[in-house]
Amino acid sequence: MTAALRRSLCLITVSLIAGGLLTLAQATPALASTRQSKDSVPGIPGLPTGVPPAATASPVALPVPSRTVWPFPSDFSHTEGTGRLSGGANLWTDFVYDDHGPLGSPVGIAQAGNASDLAPVHGGFTYPSGPAHQNGADIFTAAVGYRHGASYWRVDWNTLVDPKVPVAEWTMSGASGPSAPAAATAWPANAGASTSTGIQYALIVTAKQAELVKAADPGSPIAVLPTHVDASSRSFIVKIPASVLPVSGTWKVGLAAGLADPTDTKFATVPQSDGGSGSGVNVYNVTFRTYKQESELVCPTGPFPDPGLASALQGGLGVGGVSYDHLPVAECGNFWMENDQANTLAGGDLSKYSLGVNWHQLADRTTTPEPEPTGYTNRWYVTPLSLGQGVVDPSNSTLTSPTYLGRVQPYAVYVPTTYHRRQPIRLTWILHSLGANLNQYGGVAPSQLREECQDRTSICATTEGFAAGMWYYGEAEVDFFDVWHQLALAYNLDPDGTAMTGYSMGGWASYKLPEEYPDLFAQAMPLEGPVICGLRVYGSVQSFAGPGQCTKDGDSRPLIANLKWIPFVMTYGAADELVPFAGGQQQISQFRSLGYRFYAVDYPTEDHLVFSVQNDFTPADSQLTSRERVLNPGSFTFTWYPDLVGTIDKVGQAGRVGPTSDYWISGLSARNRKPSTLASVTADSAAIRQPTQTPSETFGVSPLPEPTPAATDVETWTPGAAHSTSQNLKLGLTNVANATLDTARARLGCAAITVTTDGPATVTLLHLKPHSTVRSSGTKLATAGSGRSARVRLSRGTTVLHACSAG
């Protein structure tokens, strides 16, 4: 890397601010003796067993307008920037949180209303304080329908606290015949300098009314129509009889939104204090932009920290941004899928954004399937959590609280071009850094996506997590499992091939989530991952990132013992100013002392911020394989923070997360659930045949010295002879109130189960022979009922149980 390019990277990093990036995990050959067939949650193929209840709860449906007001389906595409036909309507899905107007100045600096420092917006508009909630003109979906001699025009808002806040304007062209109006270029109703070629009609829609005008003569309305406001679906719907607006053939339709003026009849002028530049543009959001137009990399047209680098990027990215090769691209990162919108609004001509409406197709109720694009896109789902609406001003929120509150939440997906639904495909999580957002990797590290997703034939996903800095606790953890459920519904996932990765805060999650749910993952790869929820220099010299669980339950080291069956890849930079190198080395030492597998890459010259935008993690990426998760190991340790088990936002099972199971032990609960308290299970089934493993460590230099030379520290296993099996199982319980043993998965027949507990505990045995007894020293303790399970209450000490499994 040249000195000039490194200086450019530093400039980019300074303009982005502090906080981190991406990635993924390693693997060595799976142990055949511990491998079983594909194992999914019943009824949800591709979602692995072992997920918490939040992951298996039925998805929440969006409220829809009544059929009398909207007599069409509302099955919008779940991919942002796409549309479909359904039952007489043309349905379009816009991007969410993309309502920042024309290009801001300076480019690349986060605006006041943007709550993600490392995911800067490129539009220059913010909102006035009040019911707009920093999101009041954000179009979520839009639709045009035709039935029984009338056209229908529908806009759904992401945020609608007060219906008087937004205004939407439809433009239409394509009318023909002697009565067709003349064409104009300007959008009426104070939309501003925004233009389109050949506008014939405009429909200005507010909560107060809908005004249909001729674009060439907007001062003389054709009709003033009622607007139906549906607060539950957050819809504005207008019905226009064909006698008022005759429709035929194919029309070109546009739609833009802004804030309504005090009369609630037109666009309000955006003041300079909210980003207005005097150019006259008052549009916050334009829809009918495709995911190809708003790809993950779209260079702004304004000034750059380094114009020469920007020019090189613009020329080298190509269509769709695929001709890069480890080229830094941060200046073109489309973090909110609004870069092209911002560029276009600044230029003034909106002709490129339009929906083709074929009225004959609508009359015939033509239906097309939901789009299934490959490559990089953003998708959406409905969260079960009721957090409010809009965007919380970051100055009014804590670091670890939600900031993007809407019921519709986005997530990023990369689908390999070779994907076909007939073949199950592995999933790779790439969780975002502190201060970043769901489009971090698309906007900063597309080469990494290519290597980890396209080249490995893996679907990759990044959650938003409701905020830039929740460290994947609470609501952000619910979001993670909700997205996993959505991915399992949308794609044919391999439930046994999941890798967990991420950079910085996402690297922390690559420790946290596999430690809490080790039976879900095949590999893990924290890149520059903090070892606590915050910053650890070494030992007890540390600082946590936020109050509550982050501080009380935010140390990964006591839980590393859980990771026996998950190979790890780790990277650490010696000059890292946010994830101290010594703390990372202490983490590696813990893996080493346990004899666990790891592939550590140490960079002598890399820091945290420049490293994050270099678009290259070649040595680490090269260690990702097609490994599958271990389902039924013979032995494991599981330690957890009981304080992390609970329901978020009082929504029952849909909000319930936290570790309660591992492999063939489930139903775990602790006697003491206070914050910072640990509980632990050790389990060893001699009935499961598995080879002995001898760890061996090697040191070297990375054969792939990108982005800079690195040292490697690798610990692998050498399998030996498998021990002979016996019908004996040992359980050690520390601070455990309840535990359930799956005797079938533990391969038990008639077995001796030795339980040692440090206090009162109830152990439930599953899959016993019907009506068989559980005995200890000849005394009957319990009888299996019709459900073939039995509960045994134990006191402190060691008890040997004798029971017979149904096999």
Q: What keyword list fits this structure?
A:
807 residues; alpha+beta; ten-stranded mixed β-sheet; seven-stranded antiparallel β-sheet; 42 strands; elongated; disordered N terminus
Structure write-up:
The structure is a single chain. The chain is α+β, with helices and mostly antiparallel strands. Helices cover 14% and strands 30% of the residues. The protein has 13 helices and 42 strands. It has a 10-stranded mixed sheet with strand order 18-19-21-20-22-23-26-27-34-33, with helices on both faces. Strands 7, 10, 11, 12, 15, 16 and 17 form a 7-stranded antiparallel sheet that branches. It has a 6-stranded antiparallel sheet with strand order 3-4-5-6-14-13. It is elongated. Mean pLDDT is 89; it is low at 1-37, 107-113 and 317-324.
**In percent, how helical is the residue content?**
10-25%
Summing up helix and strand content along with how strands pair, one would put the structural category as: alpha+beta
Supply Rg.
29 Å
Please report the total strand number as a whole number. 42
Oligomer: single chain
End-to-end Cα distance, whole Å, is 61 Å
**Main beta sheet strand tally, sense and closure:** 10 strands, mixed
| Major β-sheet strand ordering | 18-19-21-20-22-23-26-27-34-33
User: DSSP helix count?
Assistant: 13
- List low-pLDDT spans: 1-37, 107-113, 317-324
Beta-strand percent range:
25-35%
Outline, from the CA principal axes? elongated
Mean pLDDT: 89
